[in-house]
Every structure is written in C-alpha cells, then in structure tokens.
Amino acid sequence: MSPVEQFLxxxxxxxxxxxxxxxxVYNKVNGIRVQDIREQYTPSxxxxxxxxxxxxxxxxxxxxx
Length: 65
What we know:
Layout: H1 3-14, H2 16-29, H3 37-40, H4 45-63
C-alpha cells in the first residue's frame, strides 16, 4: 500500500461519520433496531424549570454558607 493510500485509509477508518454510516448499514442488514437517545426523551418546559429551580436553590444555599 502506498503512503497516500495508507493515509486515506487511516483517515477514513478514524472518521466518526464513516463509523456511524457503517453502524447504520450493519444494523439495517442484520435487522437490529436502535433508537437514537435524542428521540427517546425530550424534557418539557416544566422539567427544565424544575431542574433550574433545584440548581438555583442549591447555589443560593451554598452562597450563604
């Protein structure tokens, strides 16, 4: 293998996009269903507000210690 081919091979193998593509093809060929984590849970406004409130109260308590 020439140095140019070796460089291109290593670049392709280390590429995250290429690895995602190969994983998707592998899963489709083998019938493996994988849901993306982002599709499983989307926090509502109430969830976000509650998380902010909990963090804010904790920071406020630590400020006066």
